[in-house]
Amino acid sequence: MIQAKSQKTSKNDFGLNEEEMLKAGLHFGHKTSKLYPKMKLYIFGLRNNVYLIDLEKTVEKLNQALQFIEKSIKEGKVLLFVGTKIQNKKFIENIAKECGFPYVAERWIGGTLTNFLVMRKRIGYLKGLEEKKNSKEFEKYTKKERKEIEKELHNLEIKFGGIRSLEVLPDAIFICDMEKDITAVKEARIKGIPIIGICDTNVDPTLADYPIPANDDAVSSIKYILEKVKEVILKAKPQNK
Questions:
Q1: Fewest CB atoms within 10 A around its CB: which of 1, 24, 71, 174?
Q2: Strand locations in 151-215 (E)
Q3: 52 beta partners
Q4: Global pTM?
Q5: 10 bridge partner residues
Q6: Pairing state of beta strands 50-53 and 28-31?
Q7: How many CB atoms lie within 10 A of CB 158?
């Protein structure tokens, strides 16, 4: 059996640590049948027919991604978080809120980036309904009409609540699962928006500007990476200096 590579600690300016990554399961890829050829560069071996990701490469690429994020935040740019896997939804939402950035934790709505003006109109409609509900005018509606408005408001909040603060296209996008949210990847590339993406062994790493080779299925892996991202963002934000 091949042991996970490198039991040593590998540190840098962002405190990345291979032993911690190992414990969080960042090195576990997919079965051999699901390999995307361009991910071979980031693989060092096999265990039980599952590819093992080279954590030295993960440290290198995550470090580059964090440098880009740090620079972007210091320049006042906006990062959009995307993670729609069931097990990651709440964590993505919480991280984005802590950092003060927009997020998509539910289904990615086609056209979010490529048809942004229409998307902004829907968000405007959402805000209009909220104002209506919080005004005296709402009392004029029948009980049935109020329930219909509240139901529509709830559905719109699920779809667009996380991006309600987006007045213009984001400056960069962080995608937790590039296979699950491939539509977001494609739209970001069409609009020329830099992509920071976690790349498991079954995805094309060249689709991301800043690929992070790592397990995108385990919550512990996603959490490790996003905690590092959050730490960098909170330190880099001007108001926290």
A1: 1
A2: 172-175, 195-199, 210-213
A3: 28, 45
A4: 0.90
A5: none
A6: antiparallel
A7: 12
Q: In the block, which residue shows the tokens 């490469």?
A: 57
* Torsion sign (Cα): 144, 150, 154, 159: positive
Main-chain phi, psi angles of 56, to 5 degrees: -65, -40
Which CATH class, in words, describes the domain spanning 34-112+169-240?
alpha beta
Nearest to 20 by CA among 11, 30, 29, 33: 11
Q: Output the CA–CA distances (angstroms, integers) from residue 122 to 125, 163, 168, in the order listed.
A: 5, 11, 14
| pLDDT tens digit at each of 241 positions of the chain | 334 444 444 445 788 999 999 999 999 999 988 899 999 999 999 888 999 999 999 999 999 999 999 999 999 999 999 999 998 899 999 999 999 999 999 999 999 999 999 999 999 999 999 898 888 888 888 889 889 989 999 999 999 999 999 999 999 999 999 999 999 999 999 999 999 999 999 999 999 999 999 999 999 999 999 999 999 999 998 764 4
Which strand (E) or helix (H) includes residue 104?
Answer: strand 103-104
Tokens read off for 53: 């990701």
Measure the CA–CA gap between 229 and 99, rounded to whole angstroms. 9
Give me the phi and psi of 51, to 5 degrees please. Answer: -70, 145
H/E element holding 122? helix 116-133
Extract the tokens encoding 112.
């979010």
First to last CA, the chain: 48
* Locus of tokens 């408005």: 149
